[in-house]
Every structure is written in C-alpha cells, then in structure tokens.
Design a protein that fits this description.
Oligomer: single chain
Distance between the termini: 75 Å
CATH class of one domain: Mainly Alpha
CATH topology of one domain: Sodium/glucose cotransporter
Largest sheet: 2 strands, antiparallel
CATH superfamily of one domain: Sodium/glucose cotransporter
Shape: globular
Strand order of the largest sheet: 1-2
Number of strands: 2
Number of helices: 23
Order of helices and strands: HHHHHHHHHHHHHHHEHEHHHHHHH
C-alpha cells in the first residue's frame, strides 16, 4: 500500500469519527451549543481541555521553533505550561462559580456595563482570530504534505471539516470530538518520539533519551547536536539567551496570555460544579504534560536528524549530493516548504548559517574558503515534527498516524477558538446588546451563522499568515495578556475596580500592545518607522513584539486602578457579587471575626 493511501486511510478515518460524534452530539439548545449542557465529566473535560490546549502551535510548530532556537526558545514551554497553572488556580474555579456562558458576559456583568462587554467582545475576537490563524496555517501545512495538495487547498479541506462538526454540534459536539482528537494527537506525537529516541539513544523514553548518549558517536546527544551545528556556523543549541529581560517578559506574556484566552476558559463552564472545574484542571495538566515533557526531545532529535541527513559523516566537510537527497526531502519539496537553490553549482547541499548574527558573520570566512556562496536549503520550521518519522525512516503507518495527529491538533483548537468567537457575537453582542428579545431558536441560528462566518474569515487569514504558527500564536497570547487577563483578575480579586476603570484599562492595554506589534512587525507604515520592522536593535529596551503583552498588561492594570480610584466606587451589589464569587457561602474571613 502506498504512503499516500495510508495517509488517506488514517486521516479519513479520524475525520469520519469526528463527524459521526458531531451528528450524535448535535446541539439542541443554546446551553448545549455554548457549554455542552453544563454536565461534562471532569476527566472528559480534562481531556477535551488538553486537546483544546495542544494546538497546531504545540503539536506542529513548538518543537520546530525549539529545534531552530534551542534553549532560547524554551520560553514557549515554560510560558504555556506555567500559564495553564495560573489559569487553573486563579481564574477557572471563580469564573465557573459565577456561572455564565462566556468571558465577555462575566466582564459585562461584573463591571455592570454594556460598554465593558462590547470592549471584551472586541478583545476576544482580535485575540482569538490571531490565534486561529496559526491553527489554520498549521492545518494547511499538514494537508499539503500528507494529502499531496497545495497548502491553500488543504486549508479549505480543514475548514470544511471544522464547519461540519462545529456548526452542527457547538460545544457539545466539540467536547466529545476533542476527546477523540486528544487520543489521536497524543499517540501521533509520542509513538514517533519513542521510535526516534530508540534509534538515536537506545532509550524508549524521549525525555530521558534527551540526556542519554548518542549511539553512533558515543557522545551525549546534546553535545553531538552542539558540535554539528556549530561546525556550520550556528550558535550552540544549549547557549544562553541574549536578553534575560526579553525572555522573562516573553515567558510572562505567554503565561498571563494563557490565563486570558477565552477558548480554554469557557471549557470550565461545561462542568456541573466548581469542584469539577478544579478536577478538570488537574486532569488537563496530566494530559498536557504527556506531550509537553516529550516536546524538547522531539525538537532536539529532529534538529540532529536534519543535520546528519545533510552531513552524514557528522562534520561540515562533505555535505550530500543533491541528487542523492533522501526521499523525505523530495516529498516535502513538492509542497514548497523545503527549497533547494544550488548557489555555487557544485551539486551539493550546503546548509549553514549565513545570516547577520555574530555566529553567522564569524563563519563567513570558513564558508568562502570552501567555495560556498550562501545557505542553499530553506526548511520551514513547521514541518520538522511532521517530517520526523520520514527523516528517521519509520514505518508508513507511523507517518499516517502523525498526519492524523497534526490535523487533530489544528482542528481541535481551531474549533474551540471559533466557538469562543461565535458565542461572543451571538450571545454577548446580539442577545445581550443588539436584540435582547431574540428567541432561543433565533440565538442558536445566530450562533451557527457566526461560526460559519468566523470559519470563512479564519480560512482567509490562515492562507496569508504573518509568521510561523507558533509566532502568530504568541502574538495572540500577547493581545489576550494585555486586554482580557487584567480585567478578569481585577474583576475577581478587586472590589474597587469600576466600569470606567475596566473599560479604560482594556482599551489602553489593547491599543498599546497592538501599536507596538504592528510597528515592530512592519504590518503598517508609520512615517519614520519603515526601518523598525522586527529589528532587534530598534526594539524599545530590547523588548520583542512577542514579549510586549506583559507590558501591555501592566499598562492595563495601572490605567484601570488610576481611573477607578479617581471615580466613584462600584455599587454595593457589585461588591457583594465579587465577595460571593471569591468566598463560599457562609464562610467568613479572618479579619471579619
């Protein structure tokens, strides 16, 4: 059986399961559509949260970006994992106790303001749309290789599948589909990792294999990786970061952005009790850890496999002939995600660092002495995890499994994000602001139409992403960190923040963060800033656009407190509401007795 047929079998079978689940779990009410009826078991919810959380960025792109950046990119792991703990401990139980359907609904009621709700809807849509770009782009990458179509066609296929099970089932269909998707993606991620760890180190546990000995060279595997990449001008894989401030801010941005992203928060509204929300968080952390503990090993081994493919003898002296390139390079070249340009016409593949970094500049003399005229192989980082089984010559069924897993990761998170967007539009915008008299049937129809429109917009944006999947997702976390997270935290833990302060804080945090991102990413032209686009030397205090969300959050907090303290206190009933959300009924506080 051909590899294409195997891929079709695995991907087709998984898609059939998702669609059958959606038909079985069809939403019959707005409560089913928004929160799956509110009766999801904590273990089931924990697994669904795991699938929602482990997006295309986690499955496809995170290992790729760590493989490219080494230790310096480990902030993705630390920020996303730490942020989930922050969400589980500080926000989820209290929001579940509040008992509403959506994040904007909590903000609108807590800050007793239609304007606050509308600003929250705006922030949610911007953050979620930015996030979903990465998922759709990831789906396009997976489809383009494994179904042998171009990325745009793959993107459209993914959109159609999401449309069927999301629009039909809402949160109820998405919940049980995500349970199936978690099973697919975790098997797809760990099975190839076990095989590759065995091949390279003899150890079947990838996280342990990362610190084991490389069989072929007898060196510790990280030492071997450092040796082969520094031989061709790249900085050491385990080298420290250039800016500790930037790394701290980036990690913090990912953490608080995680806690502010609505597609994960709404999952905690689907369980019957507050205690179930806590149990859901615990189970989700277990399910998430299975992938996140494996990711650093997958990244390191993928980078080592790539380099030893190009330099089989382990040094830079003799790169392979292009005509002798392995099948996996030929297959990925068809997608356009690997490109070879023979710049010196010697028929060999020179893969080395020719950028403007200190290491790249230092290697130029050595490269020139060998007759090399520039790096000749461009490899899209998002393919490394998907290509890993082929690089390591694993069986065809493993490649088919990882195809299904990559698509499951992209589709599960995309569905959650699109549901958050459609719920905000139908429930918070239409039901609560534009047409309060709308019937439940009308609201359910509005939710489905909103979902369909969001899918169309996400598909268009996914076809034109502004960066790698993980980088685009990081921008979404920055937006959520600067706008929604502070409002949620102050709404739960401060009785003094009023509606004026909340609205001013969200708007200032959002505008500040978007302005910095757009200027330093070069996404629009402002006179005098044309040369600033993503240039580290020009960043303010060396702070990357990916890290600015944490500063935006500080702006949000500061403005909200300043405006609130300069204006009237919230009504007594709102202060009592905050009290009731934070403390069990009948419980007192030490200072009151």
């Amino acid at each position: 059986m051909s590899q294409f047929a195997i891929n079709i079998m695995f991907v087709g079978a998984s898609f059939l399961i998702y669609i059958l689940i959606a038909v079985w779990a069809k939403a019959g009410s707005t409560k089913d559509f928004y929160v799956a009826g509110g009766g999801v078991h904590p273990v089931t919810n924990g697994m669904a949260i795991g699938a929602d959380w482990m997006s295309a960025a986690s499955f496809i792109s995170m290992a790729g970006i760590i493989a490219a950046g080494g230790y310096a990119s480990s902030a993705y792991l630390m920020g996303w994992t730490g942020g989930y703990v922050l969400l589980a401990m500080l926000l989820a139980p209290y929001l579940r106790k509040f008992g509403k359907f959506t994040v904007p609904e909590f903000i609108g009621d807590r800050f007793y303001s239609k304007n606050a709700r509308l600003v929250a809807v705006l922030c949610l849509i911007i953050a979620s749309l930015t996030y979903v770009i990465g998922q759709m782009a990831g789906a396009g990458v997976a489809f383009s290789r494994f179904l042998e179509v171009d990325a745009t066609t793959g993107l459209i296929i993914a959109a159609v599948v999401i449309f069927i099970y999301s629009v039909l089932g809402g949160m109820k269909g998405i919940t049980y589909t995500q349970v199936a998707q978690y099973c697919v993606l975790i098997l797809a991620y760990t099975i190839p990792a076990v095989f590759i760890s065995l091949q390279l180190t003899g150890n079947p546990i990838p996280a342990v294999g990362l610190f084991s000995t490389h069989i072929d060279s007898g060196m510790p595997i990280l030492d071997k990786l450092n040796q082969i990449i520094t031989d061709v001008g790249f900085r050491e894989y385990s080298a420290d970061v250039d800016s500790h401030l930037n790394m701290v801010l980036f990690t913090l941005t990912l953490m608080i952005g995680t806690a502010g992203l609505p597609h994960v928060i709404i999952r905690f509204f689907t369980v019957p009790k507050v205690a179930d929300a806590r149990w859901s968080a615990g189970w989700a952390l277990v399910f998430i850890a299975l992938l996140y503990l494996t990711a650093p090993a997958v990244a390191s081994m993928a980078r080592l496999n790539l380099m030893t493919t190009i330099y089989p003898d382990g040094t830079a002296a003799q790169p392979i002939q292009y005509d002798e390139r392995p099948n996996w390079i030929k297959e990925w070249e068809v997608t356009g995600l690997i490109e070879f340009t023979d710049k010196n016409d010697d028929g060999r593949i020179q893969l080395y660092n020719d950028d403007s970094s200190e290491e790249g500049q230092a290697f130029q003399a050595e490269a020139e002495s060998r007759g090399w005229e520039g790096n000749e192989l461009e490899v899209n980082r998002d393919i490394l995890v998907l290509a890993n089984p082929e690089i390591a010559n694993l069986p065809g069924w493993v490649i088919g499994l990882i195809a299904a897993g990559g698509l499951a990761a992209a589709l599960s998170t995309a569905a959650g994000l699109l549901l958050a967007i459609s719920s905000a539009i139908s429930h918070d915008l239409i039901k609560r602001s534009i047409n309060p008299a709308i019937t439940e049937k009308g609201e359910l129809l509005a939710a489905r139409i909103s979902m369909a429109v969001a899918i169309v917009v996400a598909t268009y944006l996914g076809a034109n992403p502004p960066g790698f999947a993980a980088q685009v997702v990081a921008l979404a976390f920055g937006i959520a960190a600067a706008s929604l997270f502070p409002a949620l935290m102050m709404g739960i833990f401060s009785k003094r923040i009023n509606n004026k302060g909340a609205v001013a804080g969200m708007l200032c945090g959002l505008i500040f963060t978007l302005s910095y991102i757009f200027v330093y990413k070069g996404w629009f032209f402002i006179p005098g800033t044309a040369n600033l686009a993503d240039t580290a030397e020009n960043w303010v205090l060396g702070i990357s656009p990916l890290s600015i969300g944490s500063i935006g959050a500080i702006v949000n907090f500061a403005v909200a407190f300043a405006v609130s303290n300069a204006t009237e206190e919230p009504p007594v009933e709102i202060q009592e509401l905050v009290e009731s959300v934070r403390y069990p009924r009948g419980a007192g506080r030490a200072q009151d007795h």
